[in-house]
Amino acid sequence: MSETPQPLSPTNETPTANGSPAPGGGSSSTSKNKKQNSQTGKKVSAEILERRRVGRLKAAETMAKKIKKSGIEKRENPLKFSTFESGNLINQKNYFTDYLKKDDQIFILRDRKQIRLNKVQSKTNNTNTSLKNENTPSVSTPLNEDEDDLDDEEVEAEAEAEVEEIEEDKLGSKTIVLHPGSKNIRIGLGTDVYPKTFPFVLALPKKSTPPIKTPEFNNDDDDEILKENFKNLNKDFKERMRYYKRRILPNSNEVVTNFNKKIKPEIIPEHNDIHKQEYIKPINNDDKSFYIGNDALRIDSDDYRLRYPLINNGKFNESDYNSFEEILGEIQLFIKTILEKEFQISKINQYKVVLVIPDLYDKNYVENFIDSLLKMSFQSVAIIQESLAATYGAGVSSSTVVDIGAKSTKISCVDEGMIIPNSRVNLNYGGDDITRLFYKLLKNSEFPINYDLNNEFDWAELNQLKEKFITFQDANITVQLYNFTKRYANQLSEKYEFKVFDEVILAPMGLFFPKVFNKPIGFHSESSIKRESLDVYNGNSNNPTSTTQKNAFDNNLFANKIDFEILKDLINPDTLDDTKEDDFPTIASLDKIIIQSIANASRYDFTKSKNFYENILIVGGGSKIESLDFILTDRINIWRPKILALLNLPDFLKKIELLSSNFEKEHELSKLQSEEEVQVLQDQLLEIIEKELNEFLSTVNNQVIPIEVLPAPREIDPSILTWKGASVFSRLKLIEELWITHHDWDLLGSRTLQYKVLFNY
């Protein structure tokens, strides 16, 4: 079938007079023409295009004349308004920032992360290398068989050497542990069982500089305050002996005095004196310009003077030096000489250092000590606080650490590896004060041996006398006969016999009556080279502070208050904000300040006080007194207020807080504007609280927190327990993230300590 063509419309065939299509078909004819032109490729002539371009230029000129005439023409300015690029506006509805919110943005944390990645990568590479060596088939080549065996042996030897080096580093054989104390410094490797103890003193030739201002003991017995304190001390001693039913002969002191008056020394021949001390007599042309440690204390010459770089634990001896750099220089000289002489360490740049610092530290001391060690070319330095190191050495996680040193006594509470800031206190008395008091009591009993307290030879013998005879054991307090040998530098030794009575217990009891120590003249020293750590914004001191330090300075102790006054302080949070730094001497009774420290450490959670009372750890060279733990337990039980000794005190405090909040809501105290009305309601609230307290104390029976003093673990000397804990710290994996390197210190300085210590610096 074929398609039938459709007939065309007559309108399409009928042309107009001029040959154009009808009006109804104009659009179709135009489109046809365009299609035909496009099909044939016909272009517009150049003449027409030129005419159009000229027309556009004329129109633009005409428009420019009109704009210029109206005064709104555009002028180009080549100068920029600002060199800053304008940024996009912030969307106020949804904007955020991640500045300092990621660890990668902090250099120290980024570097710590890189150390971990490097360790993982090295382990992975070592594992892959070992697996590759195991899976690689051995190709036997007759000509190179011996060479392959040698290569394998060399590779194995190198691998073993690397493993041994890594193991040695992990064990701390390349780590030196430094513990500067009040008078001595303890130094040893991290792998050593015990450290070596040296007096932190240097003997230098005298120059034209003024002599050292040495403390002098005040022998003024007419001081009324001192007499009153001695009366209290004797009264307490007699009450204690009476309580434990120890008999005291009424004329014991007279017997001792009369015997000591008649004693004459016995001369010991040199060949019979097996413990004779050898003294150093420098020659005028001696090349050695200084002596350190024990050698400095054995110099028999007036041409040398002794200088202690540290006047106290954590404080530089600024009063005896002409410049601050001189102190740091002698510290570096001391450490370098000791390492070369006693440890045969000459390449210091191969070793790292762990430095033990005080709990209530001085930032100036810490930063300058670290800077000095890094300038000595040690690889890196890590720091740890004394109380935390003591808990590491004792193997406990929570404890009340009592550190009795030569010149200071420090107390801190450690809770699960963190020192509680408000529990820290530094008291300015120690073993040296007990030595002075012991000698004074002996001289009151006509002690036959005369000593000069400013002479280092005599002072060393007095310390031996104290360590040998003082005790807290009540059963030993009778008239007893002892003997002691007095040695001289250029004379034969003399042996004396003497009797003692209560002097052996009264001297150490000064820890509980510190005013009897009668601190030496010049104890408050001023220095022209003193440096202080100041805040960069307000110019005030930024050293750490403590509420317990403030309480000790103001003598505002819980042991001296009644239970109701203590309760008012406990429920008032503002009392914790009153803090003080360790910037001048403070003394307080040891038993009372321990109670205060534990109370302040438990303010936010009183359930922790049980752990603190049951784990009292006594360390330090001044703590080596017989039965110190026994008398300390007794005196804490005597002076601890009843409200602080109860196990269910936390529940009672919650009850009081709920009662106070309900009372304030009921009477709408926050809306009252009259101070008189508020005061009346507060007095009513206090009356209610006092009534609740009396009921609480009367109903509680036999629910007292026990007190326990921990013995030194594994019979370790308590004076080295802190160093032992620091050596344990030096072998932990954690310390790899706490090393302060030269790069860290040069880049950030003291700001590095914010990220590389275990406490809030």
From TrEMBL:
**Regions of compositional bias (Polar residues) in chain numbering:** 1-13
Q: Where are the transmembrane segments?
A: none
CDD domains from the UniProt entry: ASKHA_NBD_Arp8-like
Q: Which residues, by range, are in coiled-coil regions?
A: none
Q: Which family does it belong to?
A: Belongs to the actin family.
Q: What PANTHER family has UniProt attached to this entry? A: ACTIN
Which protein is depicted? Answer: Uncharacterized protein
What organism does this protein naturally occur in?
A: Wickerhamomyces ciferrii (strain ATCC 14091 / BCRC 22168 / CBS 111 / JCM 3599 / NBRC 0793 / NRRL Y-1031 F-60-10)
